[in-house]
Design brief:
The complex is a heterodimer of chains A (about 290) and B (about 425). Chain A is mainly alpha-helical and about 290 residues long. Chain A has twelve helices and two strands, in the order ααααββαααααααα. A two-stranded antiparallel ribbon of chain A has the order 1-2. In chain A, strand 1 and strand 2 form a beta hairpin. In chain A, helix 1 runs parallel beside helix 5 and helix 2 packs antiparallel against helix 3. The chains are: A mainly alpha (about 290), B alpha/beta (about 425).
Chain lengths: ~290, ~425
C-alpha cells in the first residue's frame, strides 16, 4: 500500500500539471509548455512566504497564488499575445518553451541551485493508513488535487464561463461570433492556471522541495498525463496524472527500477495507438 | 622616385610583420622548453566562471592563485615567476577545446594546464595537450584520465572514486554485514559508482544488490521497498541534490532504519540544512581524514585558510570546505616539488620527476595529503598517474557541516 500512496502523491503533482495545461488549452487554444515551470515558481514563492517572510500557511498560499498568477499574466502578454492572429499557430509552442527556459534561469538566479525545504505546516511524521505509510502532506496533496480536478470538471460543464471556454476550444471564431470574448477568456485562463499552480506551491514544494529544474521532470509526465486522460478533459487530466504516478511506482517496485520510464511510455504509446484522443477526450470532426 | 618609395614601404611592411612573428616563436620555445629564468612559467587554468559549477570553480581558481603567490614569494618555480592565465570554458568540452586552441594559436605554449573542472572537459583537452607535449595536472577523477600510455603528460591530484570503496568495505566488515544494497542514479556517474562498489563489495566476499532511479524521480519509496525485500544489511546511496533528499526522506517514510553509507557524491550534500535528525538515523558520509575537524592538521594549513578567507572566493568555504581550494593549490605545489627535484621546468624532465617523486620528508608542499603526507601519496609511476590512498585516507562519519575554517565537523549543523 505504501507503493500506492507514493504513486498517488507523485501522480497528484502530474495531475496538477495536466490540469494547468488543460485550463489554458480549453480557453485559449494554446498549449502552455511553461506551466510546469509556473508550478516550480509557486514552490519558490511558497518558500519565500513561509521561510523568508515567516508567514502562516494561508497568507503564504495567497502570496504564492497571486505571484504566480501575475507571472502567468506576463507570460500571456509577452509570449502569447503578440502571436494571436498570425497564420502560424505553432509559434506559441516555441514561445512558451522559451518562457519555460527563462523561468528556469530566473529561479536559479534568484533562489540559487540548491534545493530549498518548503515547510507545509503539517506534521512530517508518516501515518499508517490502509496498511501503507504516507505523510500527511501527501494525503493533503492527493485530496485537494482530487477536489480541484472534479471541481474544474463540473465548472466547465455546468457554468456559463466553463461552457464558453469549451465553445472557444472547439471553434474560436464561432465562439467569438456568438459574443464570447475569447481574448479575455484566454487571459483569464492563464491567470487561473497560474493562481492554481501558486496555491499548490506550498504542498508541492513540501513534497518535491523548491528547486529550479523541477519543471523538467513535471513537464514530461504532465504531458503524458493529458495524453492518457485526453487533452481538454479536466477529469481526464486528473485521472491521467494519478494513473501515470501509479504506473511509475508499480513498475519500479515490481518490474524493476530500470524500467519505469519504459513502462510509462509503453502505456502512453498504447493509448495513442488504441485511443488517440485519450481515455476521456472527445473526438472532433475536422474538415480536410 | 615613386617606385623607390613603394619598394621601401613594402620592405618596411615585411620587416614589421616578420619581427613580431619571430619574437612569438622565441617566446613559445622558451616557455615550453628551456629553463630561461627570465621567462614566466605560464599556468593555463580553464574552468567554469559563469555556469552551473562556477562556485566550485571559484574555489579551485582561488587555490591555484594562492599557490602561485606563495611560490613566487619564494623565488617562483626554478627561478621563473608563475603567471596564472584563466579561461572560462563554462564546463563545456567544446568551448574548452576552442579556447585552448585559440590560446595555442596566439603564440607561446603554457607550461602547465589545469584541464577543467569536470572529467568531460579534461578528456576533451588531453589529446591536444598530449600532441603539444604540455604538462597537465588536474583534480578530475575519471579512470579514463589515468592512462599514461595515451596521455603521458597528464597527472591527477585527487583520489579516484575507487579509493572511497575500501572505507565502506572496512565499515561493513567490522559490523559483520553480509549483503550490501545500493541505490544509484541511472546515469554515467551513478553507474560508474555502482560498478566500483559492486567490485569492492563482491571482492570482499559480500553479496551486492542494486536499484536505480531516474533523474525525473520524485519519490524513491518503491526503489527502497524493492531493495528492502531482499533483506540487505546496509545501503549505499549515490546521488546529489533533490535525488539524495528524496532517497533519505523516502527511507524515513517507510521506516527503514538500515545503516546507510553515502558514496563520494552523496556525501558532499549538506543534509542537515534540509533534513531532521530522525530522517538521518544510521546515515554515514565519507570524507577525507585530512579535512575532518577532528584530525591532526597540516602545519601550513592555518596560513592557507587565512589566505582563502582574505580572497574574493572566501564565501565558497562554507559549501566546499578548504579541500577544494587545496585541490587547485596542490596541483601547482606537486609540479613545483617535481621541478625542484628535476632542477628543470622542461616538460619531459618534469614528467620523469613526477614518475619518480621522492616522498617528502616532513610536511609536504600540498595540504590534501595530511600533515605528513600520510593520507594521499603522489607515488606516480610510468603506468599510474593518479595518487594512492591509504586504508585510513577516508572515514565514514555522521552527517555534519563545514566549520568556519572549512573543516568538516560531523554531527554539527
Amino acid at each position: 500500500m505504501t507503493t500506492v500512496w507514493a504513486g498517488l502523491a507523485t501522480g497528484a503533482i502530474y495531475s496538477l500539471v495536466a490540469i494547468g495545461y488543460n485550463v489554458v488549452l480549453l480557453a485559449s487554444g494554446t498549449f502552455n509548455f511553461a506551466h510546469a515551470q509556473l508550478l516550480m515558481v509557486g514552490t519558490f514563492l511558497a518558500y519565500t512566504g513561509a521561510v523568508t517572510l515567516g508567514l502562516p500557511a494561508v497568507p503564504t498560499v495567497l502570496l504564492a497564488a497571486a505571484g504566480t498568477a501575475a507571472i502567468a499574466l506576463i507570460e500571456e502578454r509577452v509570449a502569447i499575445r503578440p502571436l494571436l492572429g498570425r497564420s502560424d499557430a505553432h509559434g506559441a509552442l516555441i514561445t512558451t518553451v522559451g518562457a519555460a527556459t527563462i523561468l528556469d534561469g530566473l529561479a536559479a538566479a534568484i533562489w540559487g541551485r540548491q534545493p530549498l525545504t518548503v515547510p507545509s505546516g503539517l506534521p512530517d511524521r508518516p501515518l499508517t493508513l490502509l496498511g501503507g505509510a504516507v505523510r500527511p502532506v501527501d494525503l493533503a496533496l492527493i485530496g485537494l488535487t482530487l477536489l480541484l480536478g472534479v471541481g474544474l470538471h463540473l465548472w466547465t460543464r455546468h457554468t456559463l464561463v466553463g461552457l464558453a471556454s469549451l465553445a472557444s476550444a472547439e471553434d474560436r471564431q464561432a465562439a467569438s461570433a456568438r459574443g464570447i470574448n475569447v481574448r479575455l477568456l484566454g487571459v483569464g485562463a492563464f491567470v487561473l492556471a497560474g493562481a492554481i499552480a501558486g496555491a499548490f506551491g506550498l504542498l508541492v514544494g513540501a513534497r518535491t522541495y523548491a528547486v529550479f529544474d523541477l519543471g523538467h521532470a513535471l513537464a514530461l509526465f504532465g504531458f503524458v498525463a493529458i495524453a492518457i486522460g485526453g487533452s481538454g478533459s479536466q477529469l481526464g487530466g486528473l485521472i491521467g496524472g494519478f494513473a501515470t504516478g501509479l504506473i511509475y511506482a508499480f513498475a519500479v517496485r515490481y518490474i524493476g527500477a530500470a524500467y519505469p520510464q519504459l513502462v510509462v511510455f509503453g502505456v502512453f504509446l498504447l493509448i495513442l495507438f488504441l485511443r488517440p484522443r485519450g481515455l476521456f477526450g472527445a473526438a472532433l470532426e475536422r474538415r480536410v | 622616385m615613386k617606385q623607390r618609395h613603394t619598394r621601401f614601404a613594402t620592405l618596411l611592411t615585411i620587416v614589421m610583420v616578420t619581427l613580431p612573428l619571430a619574437a612569438c616563436g622565441d617566446t613559445s620555445d622558451t616557455a615550453s622548453g628551456s629553463d630561461g629564468g627570465a621567462k614566466p612559467f605560464i599556468v593555463y587554468f580553464t574552468g567554469d566562471y559563469s555556469g552551473a559549477v562556477s562556485t566550485n570553480n571559484a574555489s579551485l581558481d582561488a587555490g591555484i592563485k594562492i599557490a602561485a603567490e606563495e611560490f613566487n614569494a619564494s623565488g617562483g618555480i626554478e627561478g621563473r615567476k608563475i603567471v596564472v592565465e584563466t579561461a572560462n570554458d563554462q564546463n563545456d568540452p567544446t568551448k574548452a577545446v576552442s579556447l585552448l586552441q585559440q590560446r595555442l594559436a596566439s603564440g607561446g605554449k603554457p607550461d602547465l594546464v589545469y584541464p577543467g573542472g569536470s572529467s568531460a572537459v579534461s578528456l576533451s583537452l588531453l589529446p591536444i595537450l598530449t600532441r603539444q607535449k604540455i604538462l597537465s595536472v588536474g583534480g578530475t577523477v575519471s579512470t579514463l584520465l589515468n592512462d599514461p600510455a595515451k596521455y603521458p603528460y597528464h597527472f591527477g591530484v585527487s583520489s579516484p572514486g575507487k579509493d572511497y570503496a575500501p572505507a565502506l568495505v572496512s565499515a561493513a566488515t567490522a559490523k559483520g554485514h553480509k549483503k550490501i544494497a545500493m541505490l544509484y542514479s541511472n546515469d554515467a556517474t551513478g553507474q560508474s559508482s555502482a560498478a566500483i562498489y559492486k567490485e569492492a563489495v563482491q571482492g570482499a566476499g559480500m553479496e551486492f544488490v542494486e536499484a536505480r532511479y531516474e533523474a525525473t524521480s520524485l519519490d524513491m519509496t518503491s526503489q527502497l521497498n524493492q531493495l528492502r525485500s531482499q533483506n540487505p544489511d546496509a545501503l549505499v546511496l549515490n546521488g546529489y541534490g533533490t535525488a539524495a533528499l528524496y532517497a533519505m526522506r523516502s527511507r524515513a517514510q517507510i521506516g527503514w532504519e538500515i545503516p546507510t553509507y553515502c558514496d563520494q557524491l552523496a556525501s558532499s550534500f549538506p543534509y542537515l540544512k534540509n533534513l531532521g535528525a530522525d530522517q538521518l538515523k544510521g546515515v554515514n558520509v565519507v570524507f577525507s581524514s585530512a579535512t575532518l575537524s577532528t584530525s591532526e592538521h597540516h602545519p601550513g594549513l592555518a596560513d592557507f585558510i587565512a589566505k582563502i578567507k582574505a580572497s574574493p572566493a572566501a564565501s565558497g568555504m562554507s559549501s566546499t570546505g578548504w579541500g577544494l581550494y587545496s585541490t587547485g593549490h596542490d596541483a601547482l605545489a606537486v609540479v613545483v616539488y617535481a621541478a625542484r627535484q628535476a632542477k628543470s621546468t622542461e616538460p619531459d624532465k618534469l614528467k620523469a620527476a613526477l614518475e619518480s617523486l621522492a616522498k617528502p620528508t616532513g610536511a609536504p608542499l600540498w595540504f590534501n595529503a595530511g600533515p605528513s603526507g600520510q593520507y594521499l601519496q603522489y607515488a606516480y609511476s610510468g603506468t599510474d598517474h593518479f595518487p594512492t590512498a591509504g586504508a585510513d585516507t577516508f572515514q565514514y562519519v555522521a552527517p555534519g557541516a563545514y566549520d568556519g575554517d572549512g573543516f568538516y565537523a560531523p554531527g554539527k549543523a
